[in-house]
Protein backbone atom coordinates (compact mmCIF):
# COMPACT_ATOMS: atom_id res chain seq x y z
CA UNK A 1 0.00 0.00 0.00
CA UNK A 2 1.21 3.49 -0.81
CA UNK A 3 0.28 6.64 1.06
CA UNK A 4 -1.60 8.81 -1.45
CA UNK A 5 -0.74 12.51 -1.08
CA UNK A 6 -1.94 13.99 -4.36
CA UNK A 7 -4.13 17.12 -4.30
CA UNK A 8 -6.71 18.20 -6.85
CA UNK A 9 -8.42 21.53 -7.44
CA UNK A 10 -11.92 20.34 -6.70
CA UNK A 11 -13.49 21.99 -3.66
CA UNK A 12 -17.20 21.24 -3.43
CA UNK A 13 -19.21 22.42 -0.46
CA UNK A 14 -22.59 21.20 -1.63
CA UNK A 15 -24.33 18.98 0.88
CA UNK A 16 -27.52 17.18 -0.11
CA UNK A 17 -30.11 16.04 2.40
CA UNK A 18 -30.29 12.37 3.29
CA UNK A 19 -33.38 10.43 4.23
CA UNK A 20 -33.41 8.98 7.72
CA UNK A 21 -34.46 5.62 6.35
CA UNK A 22 -31.10 5.16 4.65
CA UNK A 23 -29.01 5.92 7.73
CA UNK A 24 -27.49 2.79 9.33
CA UNK A 25 -29.13 2.31 12.71
CA UNK A 26 -25.90 1.04 14.30
CA UNK A 27 -23.95 4.18 13.47
CA UNK A 28 -23.87 6.94 16.08
CA UNK A 29 -20.39 8.30 15.32
CA UNK A 30 -20.47 11.81 13.90
CA UNK A 31 -17.87 12.32 11.16
CA UNK A 32 -15.50 15.23 11.47
CA UNK A 33 -15.93 18.06 8.98
CA UNK A 34 -12.86 18.54 6.72
CA UNK A 35 -11.10 21.84 7.34
CA UNK A 36 -11.88 23.24 3.88
CA UNK A 37 -15.63 22.84 4.50
CA UNK A 38 -15.65 24.65 7.85
CA UNK A 39 -16.77 28.24 8.28
CA UNK A 40 -13.97 30.87 8.49
CA UNK A 41 -14.67 32.11 12.01
CA UNK A 42 -11.15 32.75 13.33
CA UNK A 43 -9.49 36.12 12.79
CA UNK A 44 -5.70 36.29 13.14
CA UNK A 45 -3.07 38.84 12.23
CA UNK A 46 -0.83 38.15 9.31
CA UNK A 47 2.13 38.56 11.65
CA UNK A 48 0.91 35.77 13.91
CA UNK A 49 0.23 33.54 10.92
CA UNK A 50 3.76 34.19 9.66
CA UNK A 51 5.15 33.25 13.05
CA UNK A 52 3.26 29.97 12.86
CA UNK A 53 4.62 29.30 9.40
CA UNK A 54 8.19 30.10 10.45
CA UNK A 55 7.83 27.64 13.31
CA UNK A 56 6.25 25.02 11.03
CA UNK A 57 8.99 25.49 8.44
CA UNK A 58 11.67 24.95 11.06
CA UNK A 59 10.04 21.66 12.03
CA UNK A 60 10.10 20.61 8.38
CA UNK A 61 13.76 21.55 8.05
CA UNK A 62 14.60 19.41 11.05
CA UNK A 63 13.23 16.35 9.25
CA UNK A 64 15.48 16.44 6.20
CA UNK A 65 15.56 12.91 4.79
CA UNK A 66 15.26 11.12 8.15
CA UNK A 67 11.71 9.85 7.48
CA UNK A 68 12.75 8.54 4.06
CA UNK A 69 15.71 6.70 5.56
CA UNK A 70 13.75 5.17 8.42
CA UNK A 71 10.70 3.83 6.58
CA UNK A 72 10.42 5.49 3.15
CA UNK A 73 8.32 8.28 4.63
CA UNK A 74 7.92 11.84 3.32
CA UNK A 75 10.93 14.09 2.81
CA UNK A 76 11.11 17.81 3.60
CA UNK A 77 10.07 18.77 0.06
CA UNK A 78 6.82 16.85 0.32
CA UNK A 79 6.22 18.19 3.83
CA UNK A 80 6.64 21.73 2.48
CA UNK A 81 3.91 21.05 -0.08
CA UNK A 82 1.69 19.72 2.68
CA UNK A 83 2.30 22.92 4.63
CA UNK A 84 1.08 24.87 1.62
CA UNK A 85 -2.02 22.68 1.31
CA UNK A 86 -2.83 23.02 5.01
CA UNK A 87 -2.72 26.80 4.75
CA UNK A 88 -4.86 26.77 1.60
CA UNK A 89 -7.49 24.63 3.31
CA UNK A 90 -7.43 26.85 6.41
CA UNK A 91 -7.71 30.28 4.78
CA UNK A 92 -11.07 31.82 3.94
CA UNK A 93 -9.54 33.09 0.70
CA UNK A 94 -7.32 30.36 -0.72
CA UNK A 95 -5.59 32.81 -3.07
CA UNK A 96 -4.22 34.66 -0.03
CA UNK A 97 -1.81 31.78 0.54
CA UNK A 98 0.22 32.95 -2.46
CA UNK A 99 1.20 36.02 -0.41
CA UNK A 100 3.21 33.73 1.82
CA UNK A 101 5.31 32.25 -1.02
CA UNK A 102 4.57 28.76 0.27
CA UNK A 103 5.46 26.74 -2.84
CA UNK A 104 9.13 27.40 -2.04
CA UNK A 105 8.46 26.86 1.66
CA UNK A 106 9.42 30.49 2.40
CA UNK A 107 7.41 33.51 3.43
CA UNK A 108 7.64 37.25 2.95
CA UNK A 109 6.47 40.15 5.06
CA UNK A 110 2.85 40.85 4.18
CA UNK A 111 2.28 44.37 5.49
CA UNK A 112 -0.75 44.92 3.26
CA UNK A 113 -2.67 42.11 4.96
CA UNK A 114 -3.43 43.06 8.57
CA UNK A 115 -5.89 40.31 9.41
CA UNK A 116 -6.95 37.07 7.76
CA UNK A 117 -9.86 34.75 8.44
CA UNK A 118 -9.15 31.10 9.13
CA UNK A 119 -11.35 28.00 9.23
CA UNK A 120 -9.38 26.67 12.20
CA UNK A 121 -7.80 28.40 15.18
CA UNK A 122 -4.13 29.28 15.22
CA UNK A 123 -3.68 27.12 18.33
CA UNK A 124 -5.10 24.16 16.41
CA UNK A 125 -2.76 24.85 13.50
CA UNK A 126 0.19 24.64 15.88
CA UNK A 127 -1.14 21.41 17.36
CA UNK A 128 -1.93 19.78 14.02
CA UNK A 129 1.46 20.49 12.49
CA UNK A 130 3.19 19.25 15.60
CA UNK A 131 1.24 16.01 15.25
CA UNK A 132 2.21 15.78 11.58
CA UNK A 133 5.95 16.01 12.27
CA UNK A 134 6.41 14.55 15.74
CA UNK A 135 3.73 11.85 15.66
CA UNK A 136 3.84 11.20 11.89
CA UNK A 137 0.03 11.59 11.82
CA UNK A 138 -1.09 11.24 8.18
CA UNK A 139 -1.64 14.55 6.42
CA UNK A 140 -5.08 13.42 5.27
CA UNK A 141 -6.15 13.01 8.89
CA UNK A 142 -4.74 16.48 9.63
CA UNK A 143 -6.89 18.24 7.01
CA UNK A 144 -9.71 15.68 7.15
CA UNK A 145 -9.89 14.81 3.47
CA UNK A 146 -8.20 13.10 0.54
CA UNK A 147 -8.30 13.98 -3.16
CA UNK A 148 -9.11 10.84 -5.13
CA UNK A 149 -9.97 10.80 -8.83
CA UNK A 150 -12.32 13.79 -9.22
CA UNK A 151 -13.52 13.54 -5.62
CA UNK A 152 -12.62 15.22 -2.34
CA UNK A 153 -13.43 12.63 0.30
CA UNK A 154 -13.73 13.04 4.06
CA UNK A 155 -11.34 10.79 5.98
CA UNK A 156 -10.45 10.53 9.65
CA UNK A 157 -8.89 8.18 12.19
CA UNK A 158 -10.41 4.74 11.97
CA UNK A 159 -10.90 4.98 8.20
CA UNK A 160 -8.43 3.81 5.55
CA UNK A 161 -7.08 6.61 3.37
CA UNK A 162 -7.95 5.78 -0.28
CA UNK A 163 -4.87 5.15 -2.42
CA UNK A 164 -4.14 6.32 -5.97
CA UNK A 165 -3.73 2.75 -7.25
CA UNK A 166 -7.23 1.86 -6.06
CA UNK A 167 -8.61 4.39 -8.55
CA UNK A 168 -8.10 1.74 -11.24
CA UNK A 169 -10.94 -0.35 -9.83
CA UNK A 170 -13.37 2.28 -11.09
CA UNK A 171 -11.77 2.13 -14.54
CA UNK A 172 -12.05 -1.65 -14.56
CA UNK A 173 -15.75 -1.38 -13.74
CA UNK A 174 -16.17 1.23 -16.46
CA UNK A 175 -14.63 -1.11 -19.03
CA UNK A 176 -16.86 -3.99 -17.93
CA UNK A 177 -20.02 -1.88 -18.03
CA UNK A 178 -19.20 -0.46 -21.45
CA UNK A 179 -19.10 -4.01 -22.83
CA UNK A 180 -22.26 -5.24 -21.12
CA UNK A 181 -25.34 -3.03 -20.73
CA UNK A 182 -26.84 -5.35 -18.09
CA UNK A 183 -23.92 -4.70 -15.74
CA UNK A 184 -24.66 -0.99 -15.85
CA UNK A 185 -28.25 -1.45 -14.76
CA UNK A 186 -27.86 -3.95 -11.92
CA UNK A 187 -26.86 -4.10 -8.28
CA UNK A 188 -23.20 -3.78 -7.27
CA UNK A 189 -21.44 -4.30 -3.94
CA UNK A 190 -18.33 -2.54 -2.62
CA UNK A 191 -17.07 -4.65 0.28
CA UNK A 192 -14.96 -2.98 2.94
CA UNK A 193 -15.87 0.43 1.53
CA UNK A 194 -13.87 2.55 3.99
CA UNK A 195 -14.47 6.17 3.00
CA UNK A 196 -16.88 5.08 0.26
CA UNK A 197 -14.42 6.09 -2.47
CA UNK A 198 -14.90 3.11 -4.80
CA UNK A 199 -18.68 3.01 -4.29
CA UNK A 200 -18.97 6.69 -5.20
CA UNK A 201 -16.67 6.26 -8.19
CA UNK A 202 -18.72 3.31 -9.45
CA UNK A 203 -22.00 5.16 -8.97
CA UNK A 204 -20.78 7.83 -11.35
CA UNK A 205 -20.13 5.13 -13.93
CA UNK A 206 -23.62 3.68 -13.46
CA UNK A 207 -25.21 7.12 -13.93
CA UNK A 208 -28.23 6.37 -11.75
CA UNK A 209 -29.16 3.29 -13.84
CA UNK A 210 -27.66 0.85 -11.36
CA UNK A 211 -27.26 0.79 -7.58
CA UNK A 212 -24.42 0.11 -5.15
CA UNK A 213 -24.45 -1.41 -1.68
CA UNK A 214 -21.34 -0.46 0.29
CA UNK A 215 -20.48 -2.50 3.38
CA UNK A 216 -17.98 -2.09 6.20
CA UNK A 217 -17.56 -3.57 9.65
CA UNK A 218 -16.16 -0.35 11.14
CA UNK A 219 -18.71 2.13 12.51
CA UNK A 220 -16.24 4.93 11.79
CA UNK A 221 -16.03 3.89 8.15
CA UNK A 222 -19.81 3.57 7.82
CA UNK A 223 -20.27 7.06 9.26
CA UNK A 224 -17.65 8.64 7.01
CA UNK A 225 -18.88 6.77 3.92
CA UNK A 226 -22.41 8.04 4.57
CA UNK A 227 -21.07 11.58 4.91
CA UNK A 228 -19.27 11.33 1.57
CA UNK A 229 -22.27 9.77 -0.16
CA UNK A 230 -24.41 12.58 1.21
CA UNK A 231 -22.03 15.32 0.05
CA UNK A 232 -22.23 14.06 -3.52
CA UNK A 233 -26.00 13.62 -3.44
CA UNK A 234 -25.82 9.88 -4.11
CA UNK A 235 -27.81 8.55 -1.16
CA UNK A 236 -30.54 7.25 -3.49
CA UNK A 237 -27.96 5.30 -5.52
CA UNK A 238 -25.62 4.07 -2.78
CA UNK A 239 -26.80 2.27 0.34
CA UNK A 240 -24.25 1.88 3.13
CA UNK A 241 -24.66 -1.14 5.39
CA UNK A 242 -22.63 -2.03 8.46
CA UNK A 243 -21.37 -5.60 8.76
CA UNK A 244 -18.64 -8.04 7.88
CA UNK A 245 -18.14 -8.67 4.16
CA UNK A 246 -21.14 -10.58 2.73
CA UNK A 247 -23.06 -10.74 6.00
CA UNK A 248 -25.11 -7.57 5.31
CA UNK A 249 -25.97 -8.85 1.80
CA UNK A 250 -27.95 -11.98 2.64
CA UNK A 251 -31.11 -10.44 1.20
CA UNK A 252 -29.47 -10.02 -2.24
CA UNK A 253 -27.67 -13.37 -2.55
CA UNK A 254 -27.32 -14.34 -6.20
CA UNK A 255 -28.61 -10.96 -7.36
CA UNK A 256 -25.38 -8.95 -7.70
CA UNK A 257 -24.04 -8.06 -11.14
CA UNK A 258 -20.75 -6.86 -9.70
CA UNK A 259 -18.52 -7.07 -6.65
CA UNK A 260 -15.45 -4.94 -5.97
CA UNK A 261 -13.18 -4.78 -2.96
CA UNK A 262 -9.89 -3.41 -1.69
CA UNK A 263 -9.62 -5.73 1.32
CA UNK A 264 -6.90 -5.97 4.00
CA UNK A 265 -4.03 -7.82 2.32
CA UNK A 266 -0.87 -6.94 4.25
CA UNK A 267 0.65 -10.02 5.95
CA UNK A 268 0.38 -9.61 9.72
CA UNK A 269 4.15 -9.70 10.31
CA UNK A 270 4.67 -6.89 7.79
CA UNK A 271 2.48 -4.33 9.56
CA UNK A 272 5.26 -3.19 11.90
CA UNK A 273 7.50 -2.41 8.94
CA UNK A 274 5.06 -0.12 7.19
CA UNK A 275 5.58 3.63 6.86
CA UNK A 276 4.82 5.23 10.24
CA UNK A 277 1.89 7.19 8.81
CA UNK A 278 0.29 3.88 7.87
CA UNK A 279 1.36 1.38 10.52
CA UNK A 280 0.89 3.68 13.52
CA UNK A 281 -2.26 5.51 12.51
CA UNK A 282 -4.39 3.77 9.90
CA UNK A 283 -6.81 1.10 11.14
CA UNK A 284 -5.23 -2.33 11.43
CA UNK A 285 -8.66 -3.73 10.64
CA UNK A 286 -8.26 -2.35 7.11
CA UNK A 287 -4.64 -3.44 6.68
CA UNK A 288 -4.02 -6.85 8.26
CA UNK A 289 -4.84 -9.71 5.91
CA UNK A 290 -3.66 -12.52 8.19
CA UNK A 291 -0.46 -14.55 8.16
CA UNK A 292 -0.11 -14.58 4.36
CA UNK A 293 -2.28 -11.56 3.67
CA UNK A 294 -4.75 -13.80 1.83
CA UNK A 295 -7.43 -14.42 4.47
CA UNK A 296 -9.99 -11.95 3.20
CA UNK A 297 -9.14 -12.30 -0.48
CA UNK A 298 -9.96 -16.01 -0.31
CA UNK A 299 -13.14 -15.26 1.64
CA UNK A 300 -14.15 -12.80 -1.09
CA UNK A 301 -13.60 -15.39 -3.81
CA UNK A 302 -15.72 -17.98 -2.04
CA UNK A 303 -18.49 -15.50 -1.31
CA UNK A 304 -18.52 -14.02 -4.79
CA UNK A 305 -19.32 -17.44 -6.24
CA UNK A 306 -22.60 -17.44 -4.33
CA UNK A 307 -23.45 -13.74 -4.51
CA UNK A 308 -22.92 -12.99 -8.20
CA UNK A 309 -25.39 -13.61 -10.97
CA UNK A 310 -24.10 -15.69 -13.90
CA UNK A 311 -22.06 -13.26 -15.98
CA UNK A 312 -21.46 -11.01 -12.97
CA UNK A 313 -18.13 -9.17 -12.76
CA UNK A 314 -15.64 -8.88 -9.89
CA UNK A 315 -12.46 -6.89 -9.28
CA UNK A 316 -10.27 -7.41 -6.19
CA UNK A 317 -7.16 -5.44 -5.22
CA UNK A 318 -4.17 -7.40 -3.88
CA UNK A 319 -0.70 -6.79 -2.48
CA UNK A 320 1.02 -7.64 -5.75
CA UNK A 321 2.09 -10.35 -8.16
CA UNK A 322 2.39 -13.22 -5.68
CA UNK A 323 -1.11 -12.73 -4.29
CA UNK A 324 -2.60 -12.21 -7.75
CA UNK A 325 -1.21 -15.48 -9.04
CA UNK A 326 -2.23 -17.34 -5.90
CA UNK A 327 -5.77 -16.02 -6.23
CA UNK A 328 -6.09 -17.00 -9.88
CA UNK A 329 -4.72 -20.47 -9.16
CA UNK A 330 -7.19 -20.85 -6.29
CA UNK A 331 -10.15 -19.93 -8.46
CA UNK A 332 -9.04 -22.17 -11.31
CA UNK A 333 -8.38 -25.22 -9.15
CA UNK A 334 -9.99 -25.03 -5.71
CA UNK A 335 -13.31 -23.56 -6.84
CA UNK A 336 -13.09 -24.63 -10.48
CA UNK A 337 -16.13 -23.87 -12.60
CA UNK A 338 -17.19 -20.84 -10.59
CA UNK A 339 -15.44 -18.13 -12.62
CA UNK A 340 -14.18 -17.49 -16.12
CA UNK A 341 -12.11 -14.94 -18.05
CA UNK A 342 -9.79 -14.41 -15.09
CA UNK A 343 -7.30 -11.63 -15.58
CA UNK A 344 -4.45 -9.97 -13.69
CA UNK A 345 -4.22 -6.19 -14.14
CA UNK A 346 -1.24 -3.99 -13.25
CA UNK A 347 -1.49 -0.66 -11.43
CA UNK A 348 -0.05 2.69 -12.56
CA UNK A 349 3.41 1.62 -11.38
CA UNK A 350 3.32 -1.59 -13.42
CA UNK A 351 2.81 -3.79 -10.34
CA UNK A 352 0.38 -6.67 -10.80
CA UNK A 353 -2.34 -5.45 -8.46
CA UNK A 354 -5.86 -6.57 -9.44
CA UNK A 355 -7.62 -9.80 -10.23
CA UNK A 356 -10.78 -9.56 -12.33
CA UNK A 357 -13.18 -12.09 -13.80
CA UNK A 358 -16.79 -13.13 -14.36
CA UNK A 359 -19.17 -15.55 -12.68
CA UNK A 360 -19.45 -18.70 -14.80
Automatic annotation (TrEMBL):
GO terms for biological process: methylation. InterPro entries: DNA_methylase_N6_adenine_CS, HemK-like, RF_glutamine_MTase_cyano, SAM-dependent_MTases_sf, Small_mtfrase_dom. Keywords: Methyltransferase, S-adenosyl-L-methionine, Transferase. Residues 185-265 form the Methyltransferase small domain. The keyword S-adenosyl-L-methionine applies. Pfam families: MTS (PF05175). One of its GO terms (molecular function) is protein methyltransferase activity. This is Methyltransferase small domain-containing protein. It comes from Salix koriyanagi. The lineage of its organism: Eukaryota, Viridiplantae, Streptophyta, Embryophyta, Tracheophyta.
Amino acid sequence: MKLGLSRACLYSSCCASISSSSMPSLTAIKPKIPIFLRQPTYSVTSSDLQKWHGWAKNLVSSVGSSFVESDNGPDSTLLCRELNWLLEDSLENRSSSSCFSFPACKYDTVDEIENVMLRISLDDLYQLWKQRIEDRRPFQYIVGCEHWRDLVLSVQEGVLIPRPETELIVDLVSDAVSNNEELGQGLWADLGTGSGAVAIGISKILRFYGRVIATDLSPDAVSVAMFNVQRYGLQHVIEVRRGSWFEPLKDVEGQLVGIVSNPPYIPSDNISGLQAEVGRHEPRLALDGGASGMDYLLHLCNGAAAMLKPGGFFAFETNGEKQCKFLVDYMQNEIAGSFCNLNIVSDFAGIQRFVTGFRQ
